Amino acid sequence: MYFFSTRPLHRLLPLALAVLLSCSSGSDGGTPPTPTPPPAPAATTFTNPLLTAGPDPWVAQKDGFYYVMVTTGNNLQIRKTAKMSELGTAPSTIVWNPSVAGVTQRDLWAPELYFFDGKWYIYYSADPLCCDGHRVHVLENASSDPTQGTWVNKGRIANPTSDLWAIDGTVLELNSKRYFIWSGHETAPNPTQIIYISEMSNPWTLVGPRVELTRPTYAWEQNGSPAVNEGPEILQHNGKTFLIYSASHCSTDDYALGQLTLTGTDPLAPGAWTKLATPVFVKNPANKAFGPGHNGFFKSKDGTEDWLIYHANPLTGEGCSDTRSTRMQKFTWNTDGTPNFGTPVALGAALTRPAGE
After folding, report:
1. Fewest CB atoms within 10 Å of the CB: 115, 153, 290, 335?
2. DSSP, res 10
């Protein structure tokens, strides 16, 4: 038996439409939400160079940030970044400008940043006139962030008995003492660059003798004129102390890295350092790395990896110019505990970011 509704058709149509809309909507009767697209995957690689103009790169690490300095010539700048692979987009802050500070200085080179005894210090080379008067100078800042606060000029740091031409100052901390290491001249007229060390009584004062660590004696250290040992940098690992330095003149493609190892107990003692007869990091023309050198070291974000930062020219014959670009690459350790820097990697090659980024 069939039953037919006695309701007029025009009264049934609105009811049917409401039922259909209810079935097609969400549980709350509203419009279904638009699906959120998945986040784009984070980049896992980076390419060199980090900076297209960045000679003499240096990295300091503190409280989850990297502070990077390079030679700019006229002032001192600090780039602050949480990720070294993103250095190219990090903001740059001018922290010292001699002309603004009322100090007569030119040709500011090779700045290095340290945190000692609750304060920041910058060591940099500068000339009051031109070309033959370089000395290493010291700035101090009590701010927790070196891109903030006020930098105070502490003057130049020099050995009191041998205050001669000096550049590329760096610091060794060993057995609760600090030592200053730099590249300088034996005597005023002698252009050969030698690396020296002196003990420090505070971050801006040297005491005791000036001790020679290395001078250019091998043929690979004597390319260009004058012969050069410069850019000393300390690398410590598993109780061993190494001094990595740059050799040959920066005007040549053969600027390279050499190595001293502290084999004695007193870094000021004659014969306490052993020098390798061969370089540990050299040019790679196929990878557009000419004159690689004047480096620094840092740890990956998670502390598990060791990284080398350095400058190199992309083309032959570019010498000491601003074409020296900032590059970085991971390095490893040999079975005897010495560092293995490998060879300069190719410009533009995709490299895995430092672990933890």
Report:
1. 335
2. H
pTM of this structure: 0.88
Q: How far is it, in rounded angstroms, from Cα 107 to Cα 322?
A: 13
In this prediction, residue 18 carries a pLDDT of 44
Annotation says 230 is catalytic: yes
Residue 205 has what DSSP assignment? E
More confident residue, 34 or 75: 75
Angstrom distance (rounded) from CA 357 to CA 355: 6
Q: Are 90 and 80 in contact (CB under 8 A)?
A: yes
- pLDDT above 80: residue 218: yes
- What is the percent of the chain with per-residue pLDDT over 90, rounded to a whole number? 82
Count the neighbouring beta carbons within 10 Å of the beta carbon of residue 48.
22
Q: Are 301 and 356 in contact (CB under 8 A)?
A: yes
d(CA 105, CA 324): 23
What is the model's pLDDT at position 330? Answer: 98
- Least confident residue range of 40-44, 107-111, 294-298, 315-319: 40-44
**Between the CA atoms of 40, 43, 49 and 54, what dihedral angle is there, to the nearest 10 degrees?**
80
Which of 46, 48, 44 is CA-nearest to residue 327?
A: 48
Backbone angles phi, psi at 101, to 5 degrees: -80, -5
Residue 5, classified by CB atoms within 10 Å of its CB into exposed (0-12), middle (13-18) or buried (19+), is exposed
- The whole-angstrom separation of Cα 91 and Cα 296 is 20
Q: Name the β-bridge partners of 281.
A: 257
Q: Confidence class of residue 259 from pLDDT cuts 50, 70 and 90?
A: very high
Distance CA 93, CA 79 (A): 6
Q: One of 112, 199, 230, 306 is an active-site residue; which one?
A: 230
Residue among 248, 246, 257 at smallest CA distance from 226? 248
CB 354 within 8 A of CB 255: no
Distances (CA, A) of 232 to 171, 172, 179, 258, 330: 9, 10, 12, 9, 20
